[in-house]
Structures
1.
Amino acid sequence: MNTKDKVVESTLGGAVFSGSASHALDPKRRVTIPSGWRDAMGQPAYVFVMADPHAKCLRLMPASLMQQLLDKLKSRRLSDPMVAKTLRVIGENSEQLPLDVQGRIRISDRLLEFAGIKGRAAFIGAVAYGEIWAAEERQPAESVDQVALGDALAAIDF
């Protein structure tokens, strides 16, 4: 496994997304999910992709993370109009995508356009999920940004 696209199974039973990789969209506009990420998710039949609410990128989530989101919403009254709106917005801006035998997914043109992904996609680990960026916007890091890492750890009191 390439150490740049590593995901490890956490002791809590979920995949931990770490590292980075870059893959080209093929002529059919499919992109290959890094093999280490697929391995850690247990070679899933499908994944979820959602527009990121804070940046022009996409979130790649295993079914287990989408299930956590669904469980959180199920704990609320489904008759509540705000819950209904929340479900609608999440559903409209996410996709359940099957993986082919080579580990590729076909993200809708709408989501690819949102993230500005045209030729190459950069995969960036974000611990709980993976991020998919337009490679022109976010290249995998060439070096360690120690200040940013320190700030990130301090933000969560680690």
2.
Amino acid sequence: MKDSYVSPINSRYASKEMKYLFSPDKKFTTWRKLWIALAESERELGLDISEEQIAQMREYIFDINYDTAEAKEKEIRHDVMSHIFAYGEQCPLAKPIIHLGATSCYVGDNTDIIIMTEALRLIHKRLVSVISALSDFAEKYKDLPTLAFTHFQPAQPTTVGKRATLWIQDLLMDLETIDEQLKKAKLLGSKGTTGTQASFLELFEGNHEKCKALDKKIAEKMGFDGCFAVSGQTYPRKLDYQMLSVLSGIAQSAYKFSNDLRLLQHLKQVEEPFEKNQVGSSAMAYKRNPMRSERISSLARYVIVDALNPAITASTQWFERTLDDSANKRISVPEAFLAVDAILCLYKNVASGLVVYPKVINRQFMQEIPFMATENIMMDAVKRGGDRQELHEKIRRYSMQAAKRVKEDGEENNLPELIANDSAFGISLPEIYELLKPEKFVGRSKEQTEEFLETCAAPILEKYSIEIGEDVEITV
């Protein structure tokens, strides 16, 4: 529609798979599956429900009569009752037993849990693919020296691959958090209006064991190990906060990566992929803006802030149920999943196509490394018989002279030449440049990268190898 607002996260950014999970079709077919699971379980526990009734319900799982439901909702202002009516119109045999003993949250809340769980599994898959792409990058550039930065000031060198392990490690922590969240996944079950199962206790003529068995059967039929032990009318809204906290953590990791890459692109050391016909600026045709990384940052910021919504909702629920959660969670939960899906699709695209410029990296390295190497040069000169205090003062003065040349005159760093021309150091320019070889300053960067990839990343990638997928098309 061109005359109505459409969520950009849905229309521009998220993948088809994630958008389907939060679609009306997914929602309402899951409602119908839950109604079938309820009827089957009640029949198995002795209620007067026939196989013919259930068979008729199965026939219309995916054939949803939306027009009927929407017309009824306009009349009665209740979405669940409208869909019960519409389902019953298609299934006249089953009409008397659809939703028997249940409250609206039976379909609404259980469906939300099912969808969030499936969505988190898709996020898990996306995350594994990003880790795989970054691991390939880290392996390829594990021994390429580069300046490290603290406070965005040049610091003791690292390697391009070692820096990538920092990004991967954040994502591995996120993956571990997802695994823990999925391990404890459970449904609301069939708890009734205030969570007491009073209506089901009446249906089962006071049989408490059948009430407990009902929850267990429904959970098994829907692919879950169990249900929350107790509840009000709804599942604990803290679950929504836990889910979005997981997503916020992923957003934080992606934000860190995208900011690092934007800074590296400014330095012209590493760039995100840039397509042949891509336009960087409407005014400045030469520009190659880090658009994808900027979008990751932008969406990540939204998710981090959005995670406050379920936190406030969980903390302000009254007793067994209020409805001030409903409108908020209809927006905050799906949009968070859609946004993180978009972030990880972009992250995979960028990580798979990073462009590295070793000559630029080396040139910038060599502009700064003479300052960092002065202690090594001084110690070498002392070994040749020089006076440490005298040499220290000379290096201090030469360093300031060279820094002035770089900063004020825009010239190359000539500190090596200044030192080589002073006989007090007793060292030639070729000998100085031998000391300045980049690989001499990166410590165990290469070895740490190899060890990290072998012991931390590789086992995870092997464990979840089936989840490593193809690139998802970036739409805008």
3.
Amino acid sequence: MTMNNSQTPPPIPTRSRISFGTKVVLLGLQCALLMIGALAIWILAYSRDERNKDVADQIIKEWGGEVTINGPLASEHPDSALVVRPSTFNCEATVDTKSLHRNIFEAEVFNARVAMSGTINKDNFTAKNDSIYIELNLPTSQLAKLSTLKICGETVEWSRGAHRLYAEVDVSGMPGILEFSTSFDIHGAESLFISQVGEQSFVTIEGEAQNPSFNGNSLPDERHLSGKQFSAQWETDIAPADIYDSRSVGANFLVGVDRYQKVTRSLKYSFMIILLTYASVLFAEIIMKRYIPLFNYFLIGAALIIFYILLLSFSEHMKFGISYLIATAMTVLLITGYMWKMLGSRKVAIAIGSILIGMYVSCYILLTLSTYSLILGSLILFAALAAMMYGSLQLKR
């Protein structure tokens, strides 16, 4: 009697299979091998990041680096040892940051509109000269626009030095309290600091930046952050005798977590994704009673590692979120389709694809929430372990 066995493929010989315990050990070795691939991608991302920093330094060098503004300070003549600080000093800086690109690399720079005003007491000068000198220290090569110095209604042109502006002012006939004002545009990168030169100083820095942080001799008395908009105010009193008491306040304009840092951070979760994916496929193998060779596991793991190469390459040409979405879609569709063809079960393939989507979404949330990433990661691991434990109860011994 001839049996028709054309509907089912012949079973794989038992001697070609391995025990469950041995397979788990070998899968663990596979995970370790795949982590070597993840390490190679991490080295590649680090190398690209260093290259990006070198190019960013070149851009910043050409655009202009950190900006520190000190002054205005008054004296009786340019070489005088007696320096008179303003009685009152008001400075408002409006900052607008932007990214400059060179090929696929970028650097964060800023333009700042600075307006200064205040008063100087003529009685603080020992000699009653007809002229005084006012000096403002800043990187003059980074000035874009410069208005005149206005003092008691008179207009005085600034003279430029290598790192300062100075002006000689005829104060004869002027009142005892000299009111001054000036403004300028200046461009730079990384940080903007303003010295609180007045006996009473009021400094305001506001504008638009992705990731501002406030620094200096004191933190702001008031600060407001809303999206990219920010503002900070400082108010300080200094005794008139402390003319050399230099206090500066300001803001750093950080790039934040850039694309290469996000890729390297995402690689930290690669072992968790590989481990949970292998566990899901192993459960599917046991439940479906379909033997999956180790080579097929390795191909699935390789797809999980290639995800990070896709993420790194895409993120150099588009926003990180879009790159992450495209890399995730490609990886999940590949593995889901592969599991469907391998097991012949659309339901199981969709279940594993859903697990992958959940893991990638969770990892993206971890990347965006720096403050709560540890607690969220711990909760995700706990939930994954709980799901595996309860899933194992469904396995028949």
4.
Amino acid sequence: MAKQNDDKFNQIAAETRRAREQREQGYREQALKMYPHVCGRCARGFDRKNLHELTVHHRDHNHNSNPPDGSNWELLCMYCHDNEHQRQLEAQQGNTSSGRIKNTTATFNPFADLKSLIDKNK
């Protein structure tokens, strides 16, 4: 029974991976034809040798939103793309369920005892 479940899981995972790769190939190829091979953030240029480092970023973060005019895409180098997703993740973690940004206060004050130390050395 466990073997069957593992086989079924592996089959589903492989199909999902294949579908994602096909979908990505479609919009990536379209975006590479539409836009200059330049990162939209750092303006780094790409040629045939390093074109694999240029990625397609979905502006609305919905990988299924691929309008044919490319309005939801921007080309980013892999470093800027990672940075963009990290910024989005940090923004989400900074929000509470009410949609407000958490108000965090510092708990460590490196100068808390400074006055007493100065007074002691006088």
